[in-house]
Every structure is written in C-alpha cells, then in structure tokens.
Amino acid sequence: MKSKRALRLAYPILLFLNIAVQGFSPSHRRRTFLLKSEENEETELDSQNLSHEVERLKDQLFQLADSTQRGFDASKEERNMAKDIIGQLELLNPTSEPASPYYSDLTYIPGPNVCGKWTLIYTDAPDITTLDKTTPTAQLGRIGQECNPPYVKNVIEWKRPEWAAALPFSGSDNSRILQKVCTKAKASSDNPLQLELELAGFELVAGPEVDSANSNTLLDSITKEGLPVGLVQQSPLSLEGPLTAPFGRAKILYLDEDLRILRTNQNFVAVNIRSEPEWF
C-alpha cells in the first residue's frame, strides 16, 4: 500500500540513528433513525434516545479498542464486531461537513470538524498494526494525526526499547522521536465527508517531553537524551519538496467533539480521539 511504502521510506533514517457528538442535545424537532442489528432487524430511534445510543456504541468501541491493544491483537471476530459498531455510528454521524476547513474557498461551517490533534485508539490497517514488529531498534509508542489545513500529518512516536536501557547514550524513559508523514489535503462541499491526500514530505523531531532547557549543545543533548534523540533534538529533519504525489483518500464516517472515525480507500478504518493532553 502507498501508506506503507511511504512509512518505510523514513525507517532507514530511524535505523541510521539507532532508535530506534458534537454533543447530542435533544432536538426540538422529531428526528428518527433506523438502526440495523446484527440480525438485520430495524429499530426506529428518535432524538430523545439518540444520545444514549451513541454513548452506548462509543463505550462498546472504546472497550474493544482497549482489549485488543488498538486493534493490533484483534481476532477476525473482534474486527467484525468493530465494523458493526462503526457502521451503527456512521448512521448517527452528527456532522454533515467535517472536512470543511479543507475546502478551497475556506467556507466556515459551524460545529465540529477534523482540525486538531487526534490519537489513534483502534485500527485494522495492517500497515499500522505491524508497526510494532518493524524494527527492534525502537519501541512503538503512540500514533496520532495532526490536521492543520492544508496539512494532515500522520505521527508515530518511537521510544527507547527496554533492552537498550542499560546501554550508554541510550537516553531515558522520556526520550522519544516523532516520525511524521506529511500530506496535503483537499475537500469539497460536493463530497463533504472525503479528504483527498497527497504526499508532501517527512519530518523527524524530538518529542515535546524531551527536556531542552539545559541541552544547548549536541553533547548536552546526547548525554541527557541519548544518541538518537540528541541528534534529532539538535538537528530536526524536515523533507518537503515542491511536488506532491497521490497518497490516497479518507472518508469521515463519524465525527463529534471527541471522536473521529475514518475509512481509507483500502477499506480499513481508523478510530481516533482528541489528544488531551497533547503529546505532539
């Protein structure tokens, strides 16, 4: 997949461095939704019970995400359960134009949108669920996404592996590098749930938890944070050229103030919550 190839372009750099709803307030108008159960039975849901149903589905999804380690350890049955829950939430999506900040005419649409920082809690995308097996020189941490028009940046946190804790210049438990795959996104009011993505570049930066107060020199940084993070802290890497390349598209299935669910053009899903507190 394109996203997998793009991520792999940045791995040699890491190896070289040795690292490693919208709140549902009851409406005054009567609105009804038809939900289908696993037995394909239809249930009519009015606005009075909408908030309760959404919270119930979200709780189920959060529990499944936690028990399957972000989907990394999910069985086929558990992935099917997640798809069923997501399908139900898609029917109850409260946000009609979540991608409006990426419109070319910069149209302002009130209400929740994709902008901000998001942390991944579940996915079935194999290019993500295999990241923890990619390299023994770094331990996978959190995965997130930053949406700040025109950019959408996919963020991967790499930490010092446990086996390297006793090695000299390996850093501390807080030492971390953020790998960012940078894309540019576009959207249109004709298709307000879809983001079209183009690969724009890559970034490697030290995580914000890294203490830079007394790291004025390269030696200071390496001594305090370890060789990989110290190098990146003093010399962050940013690769962005004048040209972009197609990277795929994402459909926003559900978005409220706290939860966002996307489906890629390869038909994989990504469930994110807003990053609070922010870690990138």
Describe it.
With 280 residues, the chain is an alpha+beta fold. 26% of the residues lie in helices and 35% in strands. The strands form 2 sheets. It has an 8-stranded antiparallel beta barrel, surrounded by 4 helices. A two-stranded antiparallel ribbon has the order 1-2. The longest helix has 21 residues, at 47-67.
Mean pLDDT: 82
Largest sheet: 8 strands, antiparallel, barrel
User: Percent of residues in beta strands?
Assistant: 25-35%
The neighbouring-strand order within the major sheet is: 3-4-5-6-7-8-9-10
What structural class do the secondary elements suggest? alpha+beta
Separation, N- and C-terminal Cα atoms: 26 Å
Number of strands: 10
Helices and strands, in N-to-C order? HEEHHEHEEEEHHEEE
Shape: globular
Taking pLDDT < 50 over at least 5 consecutive residues as the criterion, the unreliable ranges are: 1-31
User: Helical segment tally?
Assistant: 6
Instruction: Report the radius of gyration as a whole number of Å.
Output: 21 Å
Residues in helices, as a percent range: 25-40%
Question: Which terms would index this structure?
Answer:
single chain, eight-stranded antiparallel β-barrel, 6 helices, 10 strands, 26% helix, disordered N terminus
